[in-house]
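ok so i was messing around last nite and threw this chain in just to see what happens. nothing serious, just curious
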Amino acid sequence: MEEYNIYCDESCHLENDNSPVMLLGSVWCKKDKARSVSERIREIKREHNLGPLFEVKWTKVSPGQKAFYKAVVDFFFDSRELHFRCVTINEKQNLKHDRFLQDHNTWYYKMYFLLLNTILEPDRRYNIYLDIKDTCSNNKVKKLKEVLENSKFDFNRRMIQKIQQVRSHETELLQLTDLLMGAVGYDRRGLSQSPAKIEIVQRIKERAGYTLKSSTLPTEKKFNLFHWYPRNLYDNE
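result:
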């Protein structure tokens, strides 16, 4: 069985954070390619006179580092080993959990399942790495593993090898997830304050061949997007 690593990040996942858009993103590759991919990202850092500890991060995109971030984006699209999927949750303020007999945490795991279900295949093994976000991370790890195993009928615990928390500044592939997901979120929120970020978004659009405004086909393997809306958004109630 082939073994893959999946690196997951999230943005604006809290229920009452005043953001109408939540994002879940993931980059994945074969486990035996993860080291070489990370080494290449560190090489790109050196090529742009950045130290190996420089963290690739969407919030750090600036005019001075624009060429560097474009190089990272190009590396992603040029690499046959790397894949990305992002789920955007839109109109989050219109969620009505009580109508679906759930709380925000239950819904959160449903969304994570939505992110990962398209990626997971029963004849492969997976190691899933989550960016540490808050003090509830340990509980999230346990619950997410349980949800995925049950939903995939992985009762022998063979497909999901592990789900582990990691720190983004220590993991280049998680940094790459943050960058790509951040660009999707910037475009989705209609932001335009940063010319440098606009250029990175445009580079991604050109390389992906998508506007980022619409969902891709579920079978899209390189740059997969799904824009989710609350079912009750169009109700009259």
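not much to say yet. The first strand starts at residue 2 and ends at 11.
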